[in-house]
Every structure is written in C-alpha cells, then in structure tokens.
Request: fold
Amino acid sequence: MAAGAGDSKAVHVALTTCIPEVKDVVAPQVWKNHIKQVLFSEAAIKAKTAELAKAISKEYSGKEVLCVGLLKGAVVFLTDLVRQLEVPYQIDFLTVSSYGHSTTSSGSVKLKKDLDIDPKGRHVLIIEDLIDTGTTLAWIKHHLASKECASVKLCTLLDKSSRRTAALKDMKIDFCGWTCPDEFVVGYGMDFSENYRCLPFVGVLKPEVYAKN
Ligand code: IMP
Ligand code: MG
Reply:
C-alpha cells in the first residue's frame, strides 16, 4: 500500500472512467480518472468556510485567536477560513506525522515541527482538514496541555466520526464542517502520497490508485 515520495506510479495510474463532475475541473488532467465520487463540491466548501468563519468570529468576539494549522493537509482550508474571520488572529503551524505514504494511520504520532509562537495565555484554535481516528488531535491536545493556553478549541472541515477509536469517542469538536464517510478522500489540501492536494473539491480516491502502490 505504501508509495514512495514522488513515486510516479501514484500519479500515472492509467484508469479510463471519469465521472462527469470532475471532467473539466481537474488539473492536471492526468488525475481526472482517479476520483470515484465528489463528496463536497467547490461551491459547497466555499459556503461552509463562510459559515464556519462566522461561528468562529462570534465565539472569539472581543478576543484574539491563535490559529494553529496542521501541515500540510489543513493549509488550504486554513487560508480560506482565516481570510473570512472578523477577529484579530495570528497564524502558526505544527507538523506531526502519523500517515507517511499510506492510507491508514500508523497510530503513533511524531512531532516534526513545533509552534514558533508561544501559546501561553493565548486562545488557540487548532485547524484540521480531517479527523479520522482522533489520534493526532488527542496527541496535540496533550502537547498543548502543559503550555498554559487561555483556551484550546478545535475546528475541522471533515470528521470521519465512525473511525474514532473507542477511547477518543467523546473528543469535543467545537467547529465542524461535515461528517465524512469512511472512505479515503483527497483534494482541497488533502493528499495521497503528496498528490491531489490541488483539487478544488473533496473526492473519494479510487482504491485502484493506491492498491497499485
Ligand atoms: P487521525 O490521527 O487518525 O485522526 O488522522 C488525522 C490525519 O490523517 C488528518 O489530519 C489527515 O491529514 C489524515 N487523513 C485521515 N484520513 C484521511 C483521508 O481520507 N485522506 C487524506 N488524509 C487523511
Ligand atoms: Mg491533517
């Protein structure tokens, strides 16, 4: 299942069927046959980020917020979201790894880049593309717990709630875009083996694509 970084097999799988919704919006076109289904369209995502930004602005009214994105999957979502906030904010990033070049979490989280801004006394909003088992978020919440933040809240575009491990079932998500079916999804920042992040929608990747790797 694992594909090496930059492995051309992940990009050039020769599949022939293309669903109508993706025909004209996929660039590069070499990926147009790789999507099984569009779950969330570009227009739906645009409306959802506006709705989330409104709710977040209301929650932090009169305060400043430190928006912490998880590299790299959350970058596209974060940049769309923060530009619609009506409260002052700073941006920082954390890099952790749990997936590598696979479609399933390894279950162990490693910190690769910590925050540049000291979160002490700040209202921290963690911004994620997708919560799957919840392992990454649980680790990050634990990581921030000793840093004396004024508050820590969580925003995710997608929640694969059916995949949450039993121990993390009660994890509170303060701002959530949509519940996501248990499928491997790509686009709008989310990748498989570093590809597909540029797709303007969130779609299900055909299993044939990663089965070949
Ligand atoms: P968790 O630790 O199992 O919750 O995994 C969370 C991270 O795995 C997310 O931040 C995503 O970046 C990545 N991830 C989980 N499922 C998918 C998927 O279907 N497509 C792309 N990335 C995923
Ligand atoms: Mg992520």
